[in-house]
Design goal:
The protein is α/β, with parallel strands linked by helices. Helix content is about 30%, strand content about 25%. Strands 1, 3, 4, 6, 7, 8, 9, 10 and 11 form a nine-stranded mixed beta sheet that branches. α2 packs across α3. It starts with a helix and ends in a 9-residue tail after the last helix. Residues about 1-30 have low confidence and may be disordered.
Length: about 260
């Protein structure tokens, strides 16, 4: 009996690190202090002229600052080409958008990965931003490339700078691959969900949030689609056309805090 008890105790002790590891990967991630500088509502200002003067204090702007196109072996970089007007004091979050040219599928080479990372680092340095957002359009087979970009970028950014990244809603609804991605904020886009739309909207209606803990601190919605009622501290809003005061005045506020 004593031997059996000791054996069970030994097995329990062996399981403790495993359980702690699983808890760390599945539980809420400690929020980076720089994220507290962002307002609870953020407008995505995409590549079009935007006059966002007069925003209330609880609304910031995540502005498309630079676009990278991965095209075969080439990496094409385009700075923002449209005017963006904001009032003094408006919180600004620069966004680096990475697009894939499917007519000439990218090679996802080491050179392309390094160029994306260098452009992100340069964007942070040139703007002095304390939060940088990465918006990366990929398919399932390109996940390792994105994971390596995020991992290396997080290691090379200053410790006091937070890294935010957008994510497909399906990644946060049931897919576990984001658990070990070292982004400080993950923003599931609860819009343009294609074939997953009905299923994910039903899931969000039942739960009020995405099931993955990594995806519960922020969420994105679009003005031209029904907006799920989500319990999340920060909401990002996308408009397919230039923003108007009438639009941003009607946006719902974030409804929870972590």
């Amino acid at each position: 009996m004593l031997r059996l008890t000791l054996l069970r105790l030994g097995l329990a002790l062996l399981l403790v690190p495993v359980l702690l590891s699983l808890s760390a990967s599945c539980g809420p991630r400690h929020l980076h202090p720089a994220l507290a500088t962002l307002p609870p509502r953020m407008l995505w200002a995409w590549e079009r002229p935007e006059d966002l003067r007069g925003l209330p204090a609880d609304v910031g702007v995540a502005w498309l600052a630079r676009t990278i196109e991965l095209d075969g072996r080439h990496t094409l970089v385009r700075p923002r080409g449209q005017a963006l007007q904001v009032s003094p004091g408006t919180v600004l979050l620069p966004v680096l958008h990475v697009d894939l040219i499917w007519r000439r599928p990218p090679r996802f080479s080491d050179d392309q990965r390094e160029r994306v990372i260098q452009e992100a680092l340069d964007l942070q340095r040139s703007t002095g931003a304390k939060v940088l957002q990465l918006d990366f359009e990929i398919g399932r087979s390109q996940r390792p490339f994105l994971a390596e970009v995020v991992s290396q970028l997080r290691r090379r950014l200053p410790p006091d700078v937070a890294l935010s990244m957008t994510a497909l809603a399906s990644w946060c609804a049931g897919d576990a691959w984001l658990a070990h991605i070292p982004a400080d904020e993950i923003v599931p886009m609860a819009f343009r969900m294609a074939s997953d739309d009905t299923e994910i909207r039903a899931l969000l209606a039942r739960r009020g949030q995405f099931p993955r803990a990594r995806c519960q601190a922020a969420a994105g919605s679009a003005t031209d689609e029904p907006m799920p009622a989500l319990r999340t501290p920060r909401r990002y809003y996308f408009s397919p056309r230039s923003w108007t005061p009438e639009q941003w005045q009607q946006l719902p506020a974030a409804s929870a805090s972590l």
